[in-house]
Predict the structure.
Amino acid sequence: MRKVITRFAPSPSGPLHVGHLLAAMQARRLADAHGGCCLLRVEDIDQRAQRPEYLQLMYEDLEWLGLRFDGEVLVQTQRFPLYQDVLTRLREMGLLYPCFCTRSEIKAQVAEMGRAPHASLGYLYPGTCRRLSPDAVAEKLASGMPHTWRLDMRRAQDMIGCPAWHDLHRGTQRCVPTLYGDPVLARKDFPASYHLAVVVDDAAQGVTHVTRGEDLFESTHIHRTLQGVLGLPVPLYCHHSLLRDNAGKRLAKRDGARSIESLRTAGYTREAVLESLQAALQRGGIWQV
Ligand code: GLU
């Protein structure tokens, strides 16, 4: 049997949070249960949101929590040339198109269609620029108009159909590429998006089991599509439920009181934090500290 490889993949766009601790524990425990490895990956490609002090704090928090990871830490900002190669491949396969719409234009287009934003994926792109004529595209590109690159999910679906993936909690799932619009794979300000980088890196690191919060469940349709068109191995998925407060509201990053740093400075010990997490899980994910 293949060795189990899991990963914890935080984006250091704020201090680590008890929700991150849950995600890290899930990955570590699953690896340990199978005598496997748990890798650490820093998902820092969104450089507008990152600050070096958060990265430093993340390492300090992980150390304080006593969380161990195996092998080398992979840092996504060091891998842009690799993501660029994959984008070139996708473009040559005819699966990407430039999108010139701004965020507010997309918002207006979605509102006009009478649709609300999707809970986890936001404003699903209705494919406006997919319908531009080749001449219009050439003209806009030549004028230097800012653009993103989107994955044409219709073409992807023509190519791979609706492949399956397996979720350890939810069983076999059918991926429907066209379900959530055409996602951005490269942005105006940096040449990769979360969706592209996560798929490339899970494959590059040989990840066999992706553990992550259920808020990313829909994104798996996008990731499975990319794996299909790129011919990459398909890991098993395990989308776990998220921690909530007493009112049932999801704990968010901006909720500083639940940061590991604030618990540390308030005098909690590592054991107390881990016990609180265990207690929260027994209460169905309600965090009460
Ligand atoms: N970087 C993402 C986050 O911090 C997790 C991505 C993933 O596990 O696929 O929410």
